[in-house]
Amino acid sequence: MHTLTTLVASLPTDTIAPASETVRAGVLLVAPLLVGLPLLSAAVLLLSGRRSDRWGHWLGVLASAASFVVAAIVFVTMLQRSEDSRVIDVSLGTWIDAGAFQLDAGMRLDPLSLTFVLLVTFVGTLIHIYAVAYMDHDVDRRRFFAYLNLFVAAMLILVLADSYLLLFVGWEGVGLASYLLIGFWNYNTEYAVAAKKAFVANRIGDLGLIIALGIMFATFGAVDFGTVLSGADGGASEGTLTAIGLMLLLAACGKSAQFPLQSWLGDAMAGPTPVSALIHAATMVTAGVYLIVRSAPLFDAAPTAQLVVVIVGAITLLFGAIVGCAKDDIKKALAASTMSQIGYMILAAGLGPVGYAFAIFHLITHGFFKAGMFLGAGSVMHGMDDQVNMRRFGGLSRYMTITYLTFMAGWLAIIGIPPFSGFWSKDKIIEAAFVPVDGSPWRAWVFGAITMLAAGITAFYMSRLFFMTFEGKRRWSTKRDGSAQHPHESPKLMTWPMIVLAVGSVGLGAFLGIGDRFVDWLAPVLGHPEHDEPVLPVRVITVLTLALVILGVVIAWRRYAVSQVPVVPPVGTALTRAARVDLYQDSVNDIALVEPGQALTRSLVYVDRTAIDGTVTGVGLSTVLLGGWVRRLQTGYVRSYAASMLLGLVVLVVVVLLVQS
Amino acid sequence: MTEFVAPTVDWAALSPVIIVLLAAVVGVLVEAFVPARPRRTVQLTLAVAALAGAIIAVAALWSGVEETGGTVVLGGSLLVDGPTLVLQATIALLALISLMIIADRTETGEDAFAPNAAAVPGSDYEELARRKGVQQTEIYPLVLFATGGMLIFPATGDLLTLFVALEVLSLPLYLLTGMARRRRLLSQEASMKYFLLGAFSSALLLFGIALVYGYSGSLRYSEISEATQIPGGLDSLLLVGSVLILSGLLFKVGAVPFHTWTPDVYQGAPTPITGFMAACTKAAAFGALLRIVYTMLPGLAWDLGVLLWTVAILTMVVGTVAALVQTDMKRVLGYSSIAHAGFILTGIIALNEAGIVAVLFYLLVYGAATVGAFGIVWLVRERAGGHDGADGTSSILGEATHLSQWAGLGRTHPLLALTFGLFLLSFAGIPLTAGFAGKFSVFSAAVEGGAWPLALIGVLASSVAVFFYVRIIVLMFFTEPAGADGEPTAAAALAPSAEGFALAGDAAVAVQARSTVTTTVIGTEGFAVVAIAACALVTVVLGVFPSPVLDLIASVATFLP
Questions:
Q1: Average pLDDT in the A292-312 region?
Q2: Which residue of A has its CA nearest to B186?
Q3: Mean per-residue pLDDT for B521-539?
Q4: Is A642 part of the contact surface with chain B (CB cutoff 8 Å)?
Q5: Cα separation of B359 and B282, whole Å?
Q6: pLDDT of residue B356 exceeding 60
Q7: Residue ranges of the alpha helices (H) in B217-300?
Q8: What SS3 class is residue B79?
């Protein structure tokens, strides 16, 4: 029996880290515009000030759309090339030239990065359009669009970079932009705190990336993808590669809100809803998945790191699913589902060659249906006076038909009902999880079961969300000003993006999944892995999964659509109560990190005040006393001056003679 | 009877010295024969030409010395080698800049010197001389004589020439110190002190020379150096003699415990002279000290090391600590010059080529900042009665040297205060000023020479010193001017920055006593502005691009034996 690893090892290395070619002319030279356009637009919007308030948002939309057009041009060009010449480097000149360390800045255009570019620019543009209407009443709409453009540009730098260092630039840019956007309404202290939390969690992840950069440089003497990824095969010990892999995983955990750095994601809902859609669907949280898949050759050579990746993915997967079951805030429930779905992707990425392509596949379909649902949630809030408590929704299907239908497409996609998008991608991940690794079936059983179980839980909580919002009896409260709620459909600028995304939620999975079209497209980067048969027949896996999904939907239907949903949340079981507070994540953080940290700070401040300040003050004071004494010696009498000179001379002579003898 | 053989003299190599001393002699004749009216113009032209000529002469000698390593002149009495030329250029340049400040009569038409120094202070005769606008133009030849002595001092090759040069440079300085136009008693007292203590240290030096001669039978550095290599029974004679010689030189640089004259003399001397003295005397004396330590006494490095270490540490500490509690600007700068002497000593103790380069460079940058700083002190004056002469009764008095009088200067005269701040930052050794490059080079030379504890103390002392430099900057820029209602703030500004310093009281009293006196900045004839700008330029340029000058010095930093 061929095991997976031997098959992977037998793959020619150039299919894993293919030789790239450098482009110096041709249509692909427009690639820098991908990043340049949104970046320029952000700069214009930020620098032009109030005078661009009237048209600034359209400039933002235009920049994002133009970037998408460029991406489409590059995509078409790429399709015309033969499969083995689809990895292209566009050099942008020397970036760092410091003795032994030389680094060119450049863009790597290959199917993987292009997939992300298309997703980011396409979904990003739709969200931009949506935000024009959603942020209509905000006085700072121009600034908001500047940040959105910045966010898109940073994400594009991240995925287009041809070295880990340039990737890090984008990585930090994304962190900055998310901080600015989550805290966009920073006059609300809670929101500002949420932004800070996201920033801090991200910083911890960034530390991982920095350390990984350091180890890479120490090991390979370079940080560009070409050298590092081709050097991974035999260029470094497994221990080193494991260390790099774990540090990259830490980075991914911060950006992709994976356990144990997931706590910021729920709070990040503080930002305006388009931001949530952008963070959750197209950008930011996908960066971690990208990082791991991009570093595939490193992880392939470090099985231990891979195992940890899988475990982190599995934990987050369940964690998010459980939290999602208990949340009453529609955006926080969606956030929990994001966490869980990204867990799927990370898990898939940790499975090795068998899972990389599926991780990206799920990322793409998720990008569409999650964006659609977030925009739908925003639309609901728009119609319900910014109400987010699902216990105060109910029966909205009649009042906002388009939102209802598009949201339904997203719902069916995320729970994996065929033929909707999510089915095609999620089912593949579950199958991959059931593939034994190293010939030992236990991992296949454990992770396969977890992914399957999570699919059932996902079906339950997403159905809960859907039914509580759109079905059942109306449980509306009054508006903030006391008048009655008048739910209404959102303007066209908001519904059209939702419709487009819904089309993606319905058909994209089948389009890409049937005939392995997507896997083939990524093959120039990720190879064509052969793999073992899963421990269960594929058909059985699919049927079992679907059965669990339907079970989840039915339970949710009975509890949240047929029976009356209480307006005040019931006390619930211990697990529910725990899930409502994110399984005590914040408390754990507080006890494990915040309080010791604050205690440390306090003690440092104390030491600083008493010991250091005291010493400094003491030194100052004693210096001054000494100075006063010296000043008294300076009597002004020549005789005493001469005497002191003589005395000093005698002392010096004695000292010199003593030393000499 | 042997025939007298006239020594062949390489006059060209002596040209910098000869030009300056010749001009000084001519200056004396000018005093005697040129009518009073054009006399100042003639003297000033002569002096400027002489100093500029000295610089040109040094430049002309440069390439030859760079090739050959130097010339022995007058049978070994004078050594014209790389360090000599660097120091002569430095001294001539700083003297030239100082001369511009000395010569400037300002908008009041009065220079810094007493109209008739021989008159009894406060007498009718003095007042008459002042009214008639009498000017003491003897200062120009005096400055030139002093400069001539300074040019010889670091070039000397034997102990007798050393002593002669010391006296040539000192005697005019004693005189110049006593010639201040304002506070004449203080000035004369300073002059007297300087003279007495200078004579005392000269006596010590002479005694040391005698002892060393007794040991080695020679006055020539190179021969003494050879003699110290031979083990003999009279080691203590040599040691005590060396200590005495060093003490004579350390007196000139103002190192502890031979520093006591410094603050009093710096305070009492006419301010432009203080700048000249602080910059040029230090350059000359350190040059001589450097040569003696490196060429005459290298065999005693171990024995004398303890002396130099002790003196360096004491100098840095005492200079820094004492400066903290001063309330008079000129005394602050005086003590700071003592501290700087300590820093330079660490470079000398390094006993390596980097040490030579560092010391020579430091002397240049310190000198430039010092001349500039004293130039500015000279322009900040007291004004008696009414503001801005509105009632016609106001008159410009002497320098406003009390620290509290400098409060708010940054608001009323921002450019001047900025320039002064630049010099202070250079003293403090803040990066991007020349002072930083200088401190960095002496301390790194010290570390390279194994004297890292000295470098450590130096860095600590520098960081303490930053305190009082920055305090002055804060005072200038962030404190209300000491006007009618500004007195408490000025006093308070000194008090909090000096927690528990017994200073606030002094300041308050001082301000109260001068309540009718305001601080002002007087206009100049232009010379002083050029001079101060030149100092600022040197400070900035050598701060940002020190390496060309350091390389230039390093290319010739070898002593002739």
A1: 87
A2: A636
A3: 92
A4: yes
A5: 11
A6: yes
A7: 221-229, 235-253, 261-268, 271-276, 282-291
A8: strand
- Residue B497 has a pLDDT of 40
Please determine, for residue B388, whether its predicted confidence score (pLDDT) is greater than 90. Answer: no
Gap from B528 CA to chain A (nearest CA, Å): 32
Residue A374 CA to residue A422 CA, distance in Å, equals 16
Beta bridge partners of B299: none
Lowest-pLDDT choice from A80-94, A149-163, A350-364: A80-94
Alpha-carbon separation of residue B66 from B58, B63, B70, B80, B83 (angstroms): 12, 5, 7, 11, 11
d(CA A164, CA A116): 17
Does A575 touch chain B if contact means CB atoms closer than 8 Å? no
Q: Given CB atoms, is B239 within the 8 Å cutoff of chain A?
A: yes
- A624/B243 CB distance under 8 A: no
Question: Other CB atoms closer than 10 Å to residue A574's CB: what's the count?
Answer: 8
**Residue from B328, B316, B327 nearest B267 by CA:** B328
Residue showing tokens 């005694």? B207
d(CA B458, CA A402) in angstroms, rounded, equals 78
**Sign of the dihedral defined by the CA atoms of residues A540, A541, A545, A551, in that order:** positive
Give the closest of B258, B321, B464 to A645, CB-based. Answer: B258
- Give the distance, in angstroms, between the CA of residue B165 and the centroid of all CA atoms in the same chain: 16
Neighbours of B342 (CB within 10 A): 27
Mean pLDDT for chain A?
Answer: 80
Residue type at position B190: A
CB neighbourhood size of A231 (10 A): 20
Helix-helix angle B282-291:B329-349, to 10 degrees: 20
**pLDDT value of residue A25:** 53
List the Cα angle B510/B516/B517 in 5-degree steps: 70
Report the gap between the CA of A618 and the closest CA in chain B (Å).
Answer: 10
> Which SS3 state, helix, strand or coil, does residue A23 take?
strand
Which token pair is A202?
A: 């991200």
Note whether A660 contacts B: Cβ–Cβ < 8 A.
yes
pLDDT of residue B22: 95
Give the angle A510-A447-A239 at the CA atoms, nearest 5°.
Answer: 110
Contact between A8 and A51 under an 8 Å Cβ cutoff? The reply is no
CA distance A388 to A385: 9
Give A 584-623 residues with CB within 8 A of chain B.
Answer: 617, 620-621, 623
- Kindly report, residue by residue over B182-205, the tens digit of the pLDDT: 888 899 999 999 999 999 999 999
Given an 8 Å threshold on Cβ–Cβ distance, is B324 in contact with A647? no
d(CA B151, CA B280): 9
Tens digits of residue pLDDT in A536-554: 788 888 888 888 888 888 8
pLDDT digits (tens, 9 = 90+) for B127-173: 888 888 788 889 999 999 999 999 999 999 999 999 999 999 999 99
In terms of average pLDDT, the best of A95-99, A135-139, A359-363, B497-501 is A359-363
Percent of chain A scored above 90 by pLDDT? 0
Residue B399 DSSP code: E
- Taking the domains of chain B in order of start, what are their residue ranges? 308-553
3-state secondary structure A425-489: HHHHHHHHHCCCECCEHHHHHHHHHHHHHHHHHHHHHHHHHHHHHHCCCCCCCCCCCCCCCCCCC
Query: Tokens standing for A125?
Result: 């543009």
Cβ contacts of A630 on chain B, cutoff 8 Å: 318, 321-322, 325
Of B385, B379, B472, the closest CA to residue B421 belongs to B472
Closest by alpha carbon to A283, among A149, A131, A383?
A149
Question: With a threshold of 0.80, does the pTM exceed it?
Answer: no
Distance in Å from the first CA to the final CA of chain A: 89
Residue A313, both tokens:
């993915």
